[in-house]
Amino acid sequence: MRALSELLDVDESAWPALEDAIERSPVQVRVLPADRPRRGHSCLLQLQVTVRSALGAIAANSGGLLVDGGWLRIFGGAGTEDSGLPSLARVNGFPAEARADWRPEGGLVVAHDVLGGVFAVNEVDAAEAGRPGAPGEISYFAPDTLDWEPLGIGHGAWVSWTLSGGLESFYRGLRWPGWREEIAGLRPSHGVSVWPFLWSAEGRGDIAATSRRSVPMAELIGLHSEHTELLGLAPPGFLGHVHHPAAPDTDRGPAAGRVRDPADAGSAEHARGD
Q: Is the pLDDT higher at 228 or at 268?
């Protein structure tokens, strides 16, 4: 395994370019602070990537990125979990000490979205784990199909795409009027459960007419796995470890009913829900 100095001491870190892209992004991006740099270093050691890559730079220099008002949560490596966003190491179950023989099964989970969708970087055994796409490319577990879909791009290009406004077309059909206001109060530990379920004909028919509520991400991810089994679909495999936070209700965002009733208040560029 490469030493930490080989991963950190590179000619050109990707972090300054990422900071510039975040500053120029057409969508709101919040960078969670890197309050625990040693955690970021441990993450780098297990990943065995340098900070020249977007993956390494985000792991070493942030606690994660909340993109488009928190709709997308990209995991970092160097933060605390006070914000409610778990670390890349926790989500993927990294061993306590870096091991050359350890690999995430199927792929490295790098982000969740507010609907419980999962983005992962394919491992070399992705095909055996039922993941589409080539090794090193991003695949997406979609809550409206309960299946993995290939995005056809690597992690660095995917991060650039998310920061350049690509999510708007990707989630077309899965965003309802007033969604920004509805998710504004959500902690990153929580997502939005939709009823009727997004994979049902009723859920896909009119997203604005659905009932929505805030639930812990652990519950939301678990529901997706359970539904694939109940519907006789291929098991999704590993979707990430997310714990059920014991936060007080005031910190969890709206907890019951609608998050907020709007009436009251192929490639990565393909549209979802059409």
A: 228
